[in-house]
Amino acid sequence: MSDVRTQAVRGPLCTEAPGCTAAEEPTRTATTTIRATATSTTTPTTTPTRTQAPTPLPELVGTGLPVPLVDGRTVPYANLDLAASAPALRAVADHVAELLPYYSSVHRGAGYASQVCTSVLEGARETVARFVGARADDVVVFTRNTTDALNLLAGAVPGATLCLDVEHHATLLAWRDTDHRVLRAPDTVDETLELLRDALTAEPTALLAVTGASNVTGEILPIDEICAIAHAAGTRVVLDAAQLAPHRRVDIAASGVDYVVLSGHKLYAPYGAGALIGRRDWLDVATPYLAGGGAVRSVGVADRTAEVSWAPAPHRHEAGTPNVLGAAAIAAACRALDPVIDEVAPAHERALLARLVDGLSGITGVRPLRIWADAPDRVAVASFTVADVPAGLVATALSAEHGIGVRDGRFCAHPLLARLAGGADAVRVSLGLNTTVEDVDGLVAAVRAIATSGPEWDYREVDGRWTPTPDPRDLDPLRLGAVAGPGGAACGH
Ligand SMILES: Cc1ncc(COP(=O)(O)O)c(C=O)c1O
């Protein structure tokens, strides 16, 4: 059921994208195990055909959204900020709309709609488990997002946790109130694996927390090798798949990873849910993440105190009314992504990333950020600085003058940005299912113009955030009377 992919898979885009004949600088063999897709990606036909049509990429809501520019024009939005939050898959939005009439209580009602919703929630666990190749006895706990899932797991770890300094704050900070160590990642993957081997051998460690794909550079560590190293030392591994799961197959059973955490809003399912998937034993005995209804078998009162018998996982950690729409959305995303996550989506995104990296490399003053010289693979995320132009100004000008959405800041990875950019802000471009060659070329041309001649409009900086001056754009298209603040993300600063 499993194969090991050792080179970039070429997709439909490769015939048209310059630079896509070679995978983007993989100097090391990728060893991430990729599961053979469970779902057939082609429609069986009785008519012999010369070539089979590639599986189409699933549609996203909002593609081509018209957005205003400061010069009065309206252009289709180039959303190159999918690593922050991705728009919904059409299949996800449709599924949520189809479920809404049934929306009702979960696990609490005898009514027909309640039973439907309960079944949808429990079915969603199975779909998510299948999508990430969970073992038969693994448990799926629905959470709010990756941060929530990691904090939940932190309460269940029976010992010390180790992580690297390249992590997103979610993976760095979840363990802060527990026994934990943070190690500086060396400059190569080989040295990083060696460091982990030494550290885990030297000190008993219950859990190694590691990113599936960096939210700053997109780089992917060889998770199979990391699991082998950790398990040899008696250490479990949690994979932060927030950035990996939307772009590559995650296979728990084949890779040996013990826990996976992910966010629906990065998996094209932005309905407020995330998930923790993994081994049951720690979760079954841990203190419930939240105390309350739904997490218990029974409750009594004796000697003026509440006495409780807690349910096992997953319900033990899902007190309160569950987000059935969020869980259903993640499951719908898993169904829609399953046929394309092994080959079609990675091929599409690799080709675009190669084009992006190639384009940016030709711009004087643009400096790309990379952690490792030998990362075996990389999802389509690229961060860079532009000499003499603040990252916030670049991002604001890309939006205001070109209708391009990117992220600027330190990406909730302050220790990493301190290393890679001296603590300065950077610009991050992230691609996905609906990104086109035109989007990438437009971004490269716009960055070139800004890096060479500066922005064309006037901007002012207030409290570290840049705004066009004047800004004639309608920033309240939904007519809510909302006061739009200056762009930018607090987390990045
Ligand atoms: C690698 C990584 N881990 C964790 C997170 C946290 O995800 P969330 O904000 O959905 O909890 C992010 C968010 O950007 C991320 O990129």
CATH topology of the largest domain: Aspartate Aminotransferase, domain 2
**Strand proportion:** 15-25%
User: How many individual domains?
Assistant: 2
Radius of gyration: 23 Å
- Cα-to-Cα separation, first versus last residue: 44 Å
Give the helix/strand class. alpha/beta
User: What is the approximate shape?
Assistant: globular
Q: What is the arithmetic mean of pLDDT?
A: 90
Query: Count of DSSP E strands?
Result: 23
Name the CATH homologous superfamily of the largest domain. Answer: Type I PLP-dependent aspartate aminotransferase-like (Major domain)
Total number of helical segments?
13
Cross-sheet strand order for the largest sheet: 6-13-12-11-9-7-8
What is the CATH architecture annotation of the largest domain? Answer: 3-Layer(aba) Sandwich
Main pleated-sheet profile: 7 strands, mixed
Unreliable stretches: 1-48
